[in-house]
Amino acid sequence: MPRPILATIYPEALRHNLSRMRQAVPDAKVWAVVKANAYGHGIERAYEGLRGADGFALLDLQEAERVRALGWRGPILLLEGVFEPRDLELCSRLDLWHTVHCDEQIDMLAAHKTQRPHRVFLKMNSGMNRLGFAAQRYRAAWSRLSALPQAGEVTLITHFSDADGARGIAHQLEAFETATDGLPGERSVANSAATLRHAIDARVRGDWVRPGIAVYGSAPDFPEHDAAHWDLRPGMSLTARLLAVQQLAAGDTVGYGSSFTADAPLTIGIAACGYADGYPRHCGTGAPVLVDGVRTRLLGRVSMDMVAVDLTPVPGAGFGSEVTLWGRATNGAVLPIDDVARAAGTIAYELMCAVAQRVPFAVAD
Predict the structure, then answer these.
(1) Would residue 224 count as lying in a domain?
(2) Which of 112, 288, 333, 344 is an S-S bond match for 88, by CB 3.0 to 4.6 Å?
């Protein structure tokens, strides 16, 4: 039989989370961001849960082809735009919308031969300082782009750096509003955190919002708020089973480096999951885990293929018992992925995207 580890995707949870985004912005359209293979969930596996979106936003042309192959005929947006001139040929063929964030991309579009103008999203650098035209250059870029016969409707877009934190979005929103004052076109500024935290402001809702992590069930402003606060459900669970049970005496150690020492007799279980499966090695003693739906903790270091778990809260557990590394257990108990990420000193995005190829996936009914 296959090694007992499984990642399960829940289309109904994705559908629910998408509806939560709509509730936050009832007068705006919603992109489902499916970059990085739908945040590790798999575009094909996530599609049924997300097809209620108004469009799909992503980075990779091959991923755009996959979305079209699933039968999607609505908008697809390339969030980083094109990388070389021939990419525009595929944009024309697949009717892809694309971001323009630099002069070189305008140059490529100006040289592109197309029978139908492209829908473009002109990006402003309002303070994130990754991509986009500086505020003082934005109007000139808009004028040049709008004059091209290859460009159709131009949407105005920016990205917030601190929508999830104390600094907030006011400084970037003001910069964007000032630079775009009087310019025509739809607007898109809100990511997951801005959609949930700041979209009471109509300027934040704009015409399109771009939720990513929240659609997959992680709180975008964790730990200030958790997923339950925002009524988000896990879109993925990672589960394994116990391969063995060990009885420890006081003074016995667990795992490489003997980083955990039992101070009393202890029963532990060994689960079929390790860092080669994408489980974070930086988790260790105290990281949360569910065994048969009961919350307990990891003990010692994460190995390549195995982890040790404390069975004290689950005395009935044994060989074959279910171990939930994150997500939903069979009995309905939930271990938020954000809790695991915090124990690893990282964020849920990384855990979702890092599930290894060797882990089999299933889609829940």
Answers:
(1) no
(2) 112
